[in-house]
UniProtKB/TrEMBL annotation:
GO terms for cellular component: collagen trimer; extracellular region. This is Collagen alpha-3(VI) chain. Coiled coil: none annotated. Residues 1-171, 197-375, 399-580, 645-820, 846-1029, 1055-1230 form the VWFA domain. The keyword Signal applies. It comes from the Eukaryota. Pfam families: VWA. Its main location: secreted. Keywords: Collagen, Glycoprotein, Repeat, Secreted, Signal.
């Protein structure tokens, strides 16, 4: 790095933030990434070498301490020489097997040795160093292109130091090792295209009418039409800005596509003369992207600004507001200004690709397409499983997309003579007229052009007429195949365009040109489609076509689905369209073969009384199958057995006793697999090229077991060549001559107790090759240091397993083979059980570990708490049956909480085990943002518990110290624990130290002695038996209907009505807090037992009864109803609300009970401005009819009207707070007053 004299010291912090952010996703502590620094001025000098700092904490401290040293001279050539000669050396910590990268950051061109820059850069590159450049206020045509490894495309530039953040994102994208800790790092890409938190920020000027506003709403709805809303992967909210900003609906409001569309359609047109875009962006940052509104740490944030008018207020504040939104909310911003100039919004969008200025609202559809292409989660379909179940080989129904590209060199006459007849012949036998087959047609160049969709024509004749129109204008120079496939996935295969959920999809891709995009992107788009169950057949015409590209795109088997032709004239051969049609049953014109009788009887066992025989005249149909001597299934609900060819890839470096455990694991896996019946075949590859036996060596279970017993231990196993092993198995074991069967899936099970330490790029290449070959890879780590390698080569996150030792592998090997049907087709011999019995619960359990974190707790002591939790999960087998789910949080204080992983992320035992292992101690390793909440409040309001009412919600608190008898935080935590327990949460506490004796009775559930354990030392965590904590047996802990902190009124019967102010001054976010107050207040109400009845009325200009006291009889129903209350803003008409409460709600017809006390709680933030003179008289009349009124005011400077509403004495029945956020604490005061009232009756 270099800083010139022009730079101010305050700006130097951006340099350091850039460095800190760049390494925030790297694994420093385990040695995966090493970092050094060089400063150059007149000469270069090493600030610190690569091997100086081995922990993240020390490295970050060193960066923060970097002195500000601006220089007049700048000698970049010397700086690069110092990097090469003094930094990338063994003495400075350079490693021979680890790739090197240099990031040059400078704000000035060189003043010395300018001519030497190209030569110094070349020497670095020749040494294998990748160079990235970040120039601040520099001309991109200057010296930087000579440096960057990517030439001009590798030069990153910004006008000021504030632009370093987006440059950092671009660099991190290109260095995988800098984003291993992805949960803590925001990147504007979606390698795992799932999660997204999206905000629409909209403004409508006075020119917008209802018809135009409908186009606003259509744009919003169409943008999220393909997003996965139902599973919770994508959340969507909206913010309106005028002079002020307001949240229209938060991220966590709608969780289904239907509800979201209804919410968008229900938006009201709110035009404004003036607008402040800066205030709008501040609203998104401060009031929208918050945990309370649904913002998630592990989901990238995206903002789409849509306006038709230039900002009129706070224009100078827009750049700063935009930058704060991008930095603090880690948001990527798109901006669409209809009829505006790009300069008007240039400071708003994150980059030029995110800035749009359509001339009319009709062009918003184009804007939508461009945004969706850049934000991958917006292109996800709602079906999380992807596949429709059937394929085009199984049924004569099909939705077929024909996609073609014709190069500019194509002779026009050949199009009409050969190409058009070929495309027509593909459909000549298809049953289009009866609806069995639907067809779309798309040609593509740089972008796809959809000629017609699946639902455009329902007859063959108009389709054939459209095909005849293919001609000269369809030729193009560029062929962007990835864009074409993405367009088919996101636009054609959608319900709106005629895609049917119960009908399989197929793509016929025909091209006579080489693809101009990177093969990786092309293949990834194809893989996404194939995982969704789409069959892809490719046809290449002529010498310009790259066969490797079509192989990467087509579905297996490639010899059937990749057709290569010498030229257009070859299309005249009738066998060519026949080969294409034969791969899609619906194009053959005859019905599908009926499904064969099941090989397993309805009871789950084999059907021994019948032999299955099938015949068919159609190509590719099984002619005969017989079943005999089939072993009974392992369980009574197994699926039909699926054949598999399985190879163990084994690396072992431990003791002989552990080797026996490894052999037993493999023998146990074989024992439950039907080798005798030919369902499963096994081979073994021992690391470094030793193959004890191939797939076709043994044909019985006993032979395989004997071979495993005789397998010698590999004594030369110090190094682990994981990439080489995967390559050997794929190329030399999964081959016909070694027993590989064409119709049997291939499986590799990697078992290792050592990290390979290989280049991640090399492992990624092997993974891609296995994915392309259709090989499923499962990885099993035994005491491995870093699971990253296992994740790199496995076929998916659910295929990665980690165990604390070989005994654990032996006890839990069933986890690995659970998802391989072929390994569950034979009943194992009974043997004495050495494992903990599988837990069977009488009700589902959601378990959350809550780790108390303390600066006084050493890393080793904290690890003992983590190891206990891992051991607990290890022995809790019911996690694998989804009967128990596990999540974890940690709390360094009573007002801070970190979410470590969610219940959804702990749905499998091995996944929960590894997630627990990743938890680190506060404060040294915490880089994620904490929630500003009490841990129990967070658990009650933020944890996504299952909705089942007959279930257990358990919090297992692991404490490292007592809270202290007189600390305020202790009182807050005790009170919050009481509320959690009252809501149905069972609290179990395990802690160290005698100072916990004061806390345990107040934190743990009753009886507290049975729900708590006090340890003398942290070492005793290792001796706590998980079985001592009963989650499933004994009394089912249900939510208590009686509060344990207000015993004096627990049996009182109450008819209760809430009167809530929804006027404009409240704002929607505060109205949500008001609703939270209602739910918090009702935690301790006996609604299910019938003691308490509840109704709610809200008011602004008019009043609205949301529900009466006899509408709902359970607390769950009341909570759901409160959540659904909409915000209806307007003026403040308290008088009519009080009148409606008295005359329409406290009536026998609507649930009022004779002899039961009537209570009303009024919550307002302002004085009445409609019917103000009637407000107090209406309150007096209600009190005169026996209704006791509590009045709560928020932010009021004048409380006279509030005093007039409340029952007497005023000081006991009127409450005032300054902020809506204080309502939560106020509920206890109101409840206390209510209990006191009943005590005096």
């Amino acid at each position: 790095m270099h800083t010139s004299r022009r730079m101010k010291e305050a700006d130097y912090d951006y340099y350091k933030d850039f460095m800190l952010d760049t390494i925030s996703g790297a694994n420093i502590d385990n040695g995966e990434v090493r970092v050094g620094a060089v400063i150059y001025r007149k000469k270069g000098s090493v600030v610190f070498p690569l091997n100086r700092y081995r922990s993240r904490n020390n490295l970050e401290d060193a960066i923060n301490r970097l002195p500000f040293q601006p220089g007049t001279y700048s000698n970049l050539a010397s700086g690069m020489d110092v990097v090469r000669e003094n930094l990338f050396t063994p003495d400075a910590g350079d490693r021979e097997d680890v790739p090197n990268a240099v990031i040059v950051v400078t704000d000035s061109d060189s003043t010395s040795d300018v001519d030497r820059i190209p030569e110094s850069a070349r020497k670095l590159k020749d040494a294998g160093v990748e160079i990235f450049t970040a120039g601040i206020g520099l001309d991109t045509s200057g010296e930087l292109p000579a440096l960057a490894s990517g030439g001009d495309s590798g030069v990153l530039a910004a006008n000021s130091v504030r632009g370093l953040t987006p440059m950092r994102d671009e660099i991190v994208l290109q260095i995988p090792a800098l984003r291993r800790r992805f949960k803590d790092v925001f990147l504007p890409t979606w390698e795992d295209p799932k999660k997204l938190d999206l905000a629409f920020l909209i403004h409508t000027s006075k020119k917008v009418d209802q018809e135009t506003f409908q186009q606003y709403k259509d744009f919003m709805r169409d943008t999220v039409s393909e997003a996965d809303i139902e599973s919770g992967a994508v959340q969507v909210g909206a913010v309106l800005y005028r002079k002020r900003g307001s949240v229209l609906f938060p991220l966590n409001r709608y969780n289904t596509k239907g509800d979201l569309n209804s919410g968008i359609n229900g938006l009201k047109l709110q035009r404004a003369k003036d607008n402040s875009l800066a205030v709008g962006m501040d609203t998104v940052r401060e009031n929208f992207f918050t945990p309370e509104q649904g913002d998630r740490e592990d989901a990238p944030n995206v903002v789409i600004v849509l306006t038709d008018e230039d900002p009129t207020i706070d224009v100078a504040e827009i750049p700063a507001a935009a930058q704060m939104l991008k930095d603090q909310s880690r948001a990527r911003v798109f901006a669409a200004g209809v009829g505006l100039n790009k300069d008007d919004l240039k400071d708003v969008a994150s980059n030029d690709d995110g800035l749009f200025t359509p001339s009319t609202f009709d062009e918003l559809s184009v804007v939508k397409d461009k945004i969706v292409k850049q934000v991958e989660p917006l292109g996800q379909k709602d079906d999380p499983s992807g596949s429709k179940g059937l394929t085009v080989d199984d049924t004569d129904k099909a939705d077929v997309a024909i996609v073609f590209h014709l190069s500019q060199k194509t002779i026009v006459k050949e199009i009409s003579d050969y190409f058009v007849p070929f495309v027509s012949s593909l459909l000549e036998k298809a049953k289009i007229d009866n609806g069995d087959v639907r067809v779309s047609l798309t040609n593509f160049a740089k972008r796809p052009r959809i000629r017609f969709n699946l639902n455009t024509y329902d007859k063959a004749e108009p389709i054939m007429n459209e095909i005849k129109k293919i001609g000269r204008r369809d030729r193009a120079r560029q062929s962007f195949g990835a864009n074409a496939l993405r367009g088919i996935r996101s636009t054609v295969f959608t319900p709106e365009r005629g895609d049917r959920p119960d009908v399989p999809n197929a793509i016929i891709l025909v091209t006579n040109n080489e693809n101009q995009q990177k093969l990786k992107g092309y293949a990834q788009e194809a893989e996404t489609l194939k995982k969704d169950g789409v069959k892809i057949i490719t046809v290449g015409i002529g010498e310009d076509v790259n066969e490797n590209e079509l192989n990467a795109v087509a579905s297996p088997p490639l010899d059937e689905n990749v057709i290569m032709l010498k030229g257009m004239q070859a299309l005249e051969d009738p066998s060519v369209p026949e080969d294409v049609r034969s791969g899609i049953l619906g194009l053959m014109g005859y019905p599908a073969t009926p499904a064969p009788p099941p090989l397993w009887s309805s009871t789950g066992g084999p059907d021994m009384e019948s032999t299955v025989n099938m015949t068919a005249s159609q190509p590719g149909v099984l002619l005969s199958t017989s079943v005999s001597n089939v072993h009974p299934p392992l369980t009574t609900n197994l699926p039909e057995p699926v054949e598999a060819d399985i190879v163990f890839l084994v690396h072992f470096s431990k003791s002989s006793d552990d080797y026996d455990q490894l052999i037993n694991f493999m023998k146990d896996s074989v024992e439950t697999s039907d080798v005798d019946g030919g369902i499963a075949q096994f081979g073994v590859y021992y690391d470094r090229g030793m193959v004890p036996f191939h797939l076709n060596r043994y044909t019985s279970n006993q032979e395989v077991a004997d071979a495993l017993d005789q397998m010698p231990r590999n004594t030369d196993a110090t190094m682990f060549d994981l990439a080489g092993g995967l390559r050997y198995i794929r190329d030399r074991m999964f081959v016909p001559e070694r027993g590989d069967r064409e119709d049997a899936p291939n499986k590799i099970i990697v078992v290792t107790d050592t990290n390979a330490g290989q280049d991640p790029r090399q492992l990624q290449r092997e993974k891609d090759a296995n994915d392309l070959a259709g090989i499923d890879v499962y990885t099993v780590g035994v005491n491995v240091r870093d699971k990253g390698e296992l994740e790199d080569v496995s076929s998916g996150p659910d295929n990665v397993f980690a165990f604390a030792g070989y005994p654990a592998l032996g006890e839990n090997g069933d986890l690995v083979k659970r998802d391989i049907p072929a390994m569950n087709t034979r009943q194992p011999r009974p043997k004495p059980s050495t494992t903990v019995a599988t837990t069977q619960c009488d009700a589902p359990v959601d378990l959350v570990f809550a780790f108390q974190q303390s600066k006084l707790t050493s890393g080793e002591n904290f690890r003992s708490m983590v190891e206990f939790s891992k051991e607990f999960v290890f022995h809790t087998h019911a996690i694998d049956t989804h009967q128990i789910r596990v999540g974890a949080v940690s709390f360094p204080s009573s007002r801070l909480v970190y979410e470590e992983f969610t219940l959804e992320e702990g749905h499998r035992r091995h996944i929960a085990y590894w997630n627990l292992d990743r938890i680190r101690n506060y404060p040294t390793d915490k880089t994620s943002r904490p929630y500003q909440k009490n841990v129990f409040d967070y658990i009650v309001s933020n944890i996504q518990w299952r909705k089942d009412t007959l279930m257990r919600r358990i919090v297992l608190v692991l404490m490292s110290r007592g809270l202290g008898r007189h600390l305020k935080e202790a009182h807050e935590l005790h009170l919050a624990s009481s509320s959690a327990k009252a809501s149905g949460v069972q609290v179990y506490v395990i802690g160290v130290g005698t100072d916990l004796t004061f806390d345990l009775p107040r934190l743990a559930s009753h009886p507290w002695r049975a729900n708590s354990v006090v340890l003398d030392s942290f070492e005793q965590f290792y001796h706590v038996k998980p079985s001592s904590i009963s989650m499933c047996k004994g009394r089912l802990h249900r939510p208590s209907s009686r509060p344990d902190i207000f015993q004096s009124c627990s049996d009182a019967k109450i008819d209760l009505v809430f009167v809530l102010d929804a006027s404009t001054s409240v704002t929607e976010p505060n109205f949500e807090l008001m609703k939270d107050f209602v739910k918090d207040f009702l935690y301790e109400a006996d609604i299910d037992g019938g003691n308490v009845r509840v109704g709610v009325i809200i008011y602004s200009t008019q009043d609205h009864v949301e529900f009466q006291m006899n509408t709902y009889r359970t607390k769950a129903d009341v909570y759901n109803a409160v959540d659904e209350i909409p915000y209806r803003y307007g003026s403040t008409n308290t008088a009519d609300a009080l009148k409606t409460m008295r005359t329409q709600m406290f009536t026998r017809a609507n649930g009022d009970r004779p002899g039961v006390e009537n209570i009303c709680i009024v919550v307002t933030d302002g004085v009445s401005n409609i019917n103000a003179r009637r407000t107090i008289p209406e309150a007096e009349q209600a009190r005169g009819e026996g209704i006791h009124i509590y009045a709560i005011g928020i932010g009021l400077s004048d409380t006279r009207e509030l005093d007039g509403i409340a029952s007497k004495p005023v000081e006991e029945n009127r409450f005032a707070v300054q902020e809506f956020s204080e309502l939560r604490d106020l509920r206890h005061k109101v409840f206390s007053a209510l209990c006191k009232y009943f005590a005096n009756i």
